[in-house]
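Cross-posting from the chemistry board since nobody answered there.

I work mostly on the small-molecule side, so proteins are not my area. We synthesized NAP and want a rough idea of how it might sit in this target. Sequence and SMILES are below. Is it possible to get a predicted 3D structure of the two together?
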Amino acid sequence: MPNTNRQWKLNARPKGLITPDVLQLSESPLPSLDEGQALARVKYLSIDPTMRIWMADIPQYMPPVQLGEVMRSFGFAEIIESRHSDFKKGDKVTGLTGLQEFALISGKETRAFQKLPSIPFLSDTNFLGTLGVNGLTAYFGLLDVGKPQPGETLVVSAAAGATGSIAGQIGKIQGCRVVGIAGSDEKCKWIKDDLGFDAAINYKLPDWKALLAAATPNGIDIDFENVGGDIMQAVLDRMNLHGRVVLCGLISGYTRQDPALASFGQVLIKRLRVEGFIILDYASRFMEAGKQLGMWKMMGKLKDKQTIVKGFEKAPEAINMLFSGANIGKLIVEL
Ligand SMILES: NC(=O)c1ccc[n+]([C@@H]2O[C@H](COP(=O)([O-])OP(=O)(O)OC[C@H]3O[C@@H](n4cnc5c(N)ncnc54)[C@H](OP(=O)(O)O)[C@@H]3O)[C@@H](O)[C@H]2O)c1
């Protein structure tokens, strides 16, 4: 049992991508436990675009991470020592572990951790992706905000990512025609051939807008928007009357100033219902979604992929992979 904890702390606010000065590796002694505390060893770190938002000092849905604090992140961990009535040694948990090797669970932070059941057909990393924030986001975003109807056309951007790949598959389960937009031929092949999307458009091809038009001959009823900018603009231009835009994320704007919302005139003209949402709003229904996502996964209706980066020290580089598109499916750092 080591007696120190390596931690990535926020050292400077990023201007674009994560440069080496933004996160600083530091070591602190592991605390001995008081009554009501548990210590968890982090096995996997979830790498999420929202981490880039949390690093910035801008208005957002959670307080920004302060300079000098351990960088906030989701993770999967195992309890290695406990004086906490909710946890025993060996329990597996997910929650806001932070970018560190060990997480102390104590007091009100207990609420940020969820004890996990052991389910034979689920891997540990599934609890960070398909059965974690991404699966829940896809589930509530598409079903509650998008309200898909059989036969409708759904377009998903960042479609080979952790959230988009699940949103598209749930769209298929609901009987939609599903078109994915992603940044490479390999990603397009995966979502079309393995995940069952009806069409996949590589937005890096020069004629991608014509390909999008050809793949959506009846227009678009639902936009599951993960990207913003040019991609959102091209999708909005093809929306049908009374379409729904599920405003899940705008990743193209996270690392630069981008007037991504310029196309919003279409919202007015086409009487679109646009609804932003943050997955935290659905906390009271996570169990419902977990059961359904788990069932679909068990039945083989949801497939997933992980991009696993090995080594705690690679965490800062891994965050940048989200913005260059170097991940397929869920991006995870294995410690
Ligand atoms: N509302 C919520 O509660 C909530 C919760 C979770 C996630 N989200 C949002 O969902 C979106 C996806 O998140 P995720 O965790 O599932 O990540 P992800 O899709 O697994 O990874 C991000 C992907 O975005 C694409 N991308 C990055 N920069 C881009 C750009 N400039 N133009 C086009 N595509 C770009 C890349 O794929 P390509 O190779 O295809 O470019 C990259 O692989 C993000 O916008 C995130 O903020 C929202």
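Reply from a structural biologist on the board:
Welcome over. Reading the output above for you: The longest strand covers residues 37-46. Residues 48-50, 133-134, 137, 158, 160-164, 182-184, 187, 226-227, 231, 248-249, 251-252, 277-279, 322-323, 325, 327, 331 surround NAP (CB under 6 Å). Happy to explain the token format if needed.
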